Amino acid sequence: MKILILNTSERTGGAAIAANRLMHALNKSGHEAKMLVRDKQTADENVVSINTNWLKRKINFLRFAWERWVIFVHNRFSKKNLFAVSIANTGADISRHPLVKEADIIHIHWINQGFLSLKSIRQLTQLGKPIVWTMHDMWCFTHACHYAGDCRKYETLCNHCEMLRSNKVAQSALPLSSIHFVGCSRWLADRAGKSRLLRDADLTNIPNPIDVSVFHPVDKIAARQKFNLPANKQLILFAAAKLSDERKGIKYLVEACRRLNGRQTELVFLGGKIDEQLVQEIALNKHILGYLRKPEDIAMAYAACDVFVTPSIEDNLPNTIMESMACGTPCVGFNIGGIPEMLDHRKNGYVAKYKDANDFAFGIEWVLNNTAKWYLSDACLTKVKANYAESVVSEKYTSLYTSIAPPQKPPSFSIITVTYNAAQWLERTIRSIASQSCPAIEYLIIDGGSTDGTLKIIRQYESHVSYWLSEPDKGLYDAMNKGLQLATGDYVWFVNAGDTLPTTDILQEISLEMCAVSKKNVPLPDIIYGETMLIDAQGVSQGLRRLKAPERLTWKSFRMGMLVCHQSFIVKREIAPLYDLNYRLSADFDWCIQCLKRATAVHNTRRVLSNFLADGASSAQRRTSLRERYQIMCKYYGTISTQVRHLWFAIRFCTAKVFKGRV
Length: 663
Description:
By secondary structure, the chain is of the alpha/beta class. The chain is built from 23 helices and 21 strands. Helix 8 (250-257) packs across helix 13 (357-368), helix 16 (423-434) packs parallel to helix 17 and helix 22 crosses helix 23 (639-658).
């Protein structure tokens, strides 16, 4: 399944980190997930920016600046709540972006500050694609403030927002039927369900994921040595992108630190902007690690400390708590937002009374003085692995995607028979196709202008033929190109005059197998292949083809020859090129390699797919055919490599002759 994640930034901010982690988790679970952002910060090829040139970069910056300017003006030129609210009055139209067109699911995350507007989102809903919107704050149901604090106006109607001095907040209605909203925490999902905007929306709760192979316990002494931290002190870790942000509750940490034993306890800061005046107010020795970019370094910082504290007075589902717990470090936080969902009180951390600095300090001491620190650490790891590990979260999202995605229709097949003066063989081929139990078959017959009774046979079975034509052509592969251009099925399959399908249910079995694959949210394969049974002129089996289909087929596999017969090679029509008419007898060999080079998913059926009449033009003119194959192999694999392999072919041929094997 192709999932497109939308977020303003690739890595900046908690929502961006969570969205990025989800993308990687989904890709690990077999999906094809990509991320479309405005601000791209890494070279990750799965992340694409809408800032494709200098002009678009400037336009998108102006969108950001325009929204902030409007808020600034509404607030009478005050900066106080400049980034506490968003109005989504401007944003990019991404509805025609290639990644949007390709996506099976559009997954919105945090799209504020000029990336998408409300109009942009409505344009996405008009595409008719299922949309998931993961809420990382309250903006989805306020359309103004990101956190409402004690305000409950969003439950009725935000006519006048205290953070936005305007008589009206733009609570523009969205088509909720095509959007499934997800709260990262039960707290946020519950708030959304009580809001005027989303009370009738489809709502659920799925947490953010974390990669436990990156965030995991490490040796505490080694971690402290890395950051030059004291080995004999109890270390408290506090992390914030902006220390002075009132929502992060720094004043409660300052007050709590006054109650701690400053001789044995020290404070470690991790993050961005540091307000020196605030730091000076903290009555403990301090260590400032600054902003760490590598996740491995961040994990080491968590592991180096004894307790992680988050005195936030408003928060959803902090990534920092999840990261700390994954590293085996217990946490202390207030009873607000999603924090009490993450911390099991006195089991893997401490949940302090809301805005109670005394209880917050007590919680820190409870963790630091706990005689069973190993128990707390193990409880942290158990909670993370059971609830937030990538595999757990991706499975929950997979279930959601599957439930809202339109059902996968069975693939259709265009079977193409190319013939010229082969009346003696054609009837059994038509009868074989006509007997198939699979209903999703388009059968095409391309005749080169036969004069031997072929047309009489075609007309006799015309009710079983979707389309046929008879006209002179430039040879076998020209006729095949005509068939390709006329085909409309999802897959194309060449079954030529004299060839047959092994059973009447073979196509139905393949179709059901592909539907089963799609239910596991794995994309339908670009190529389906299998074994080939050789038959004689009377249709009697001569045994399996000597060259066996490899377990895993790639374009490089054909260095050893045509390991899969053309008649047992089914290709998605959208990736199938036309045959190269420069090759008179081996264009099918070249075509198969081209298809494999274009394919991203190849499926081995491990069954016989065709009965092949071993009496074609290539057999009659074997030397010309082999000469062309040699040229094709040189083109794709290099001359020297091809010559070495042909030496091996010669040895294999002679060995087969000695032991009377088939060649």
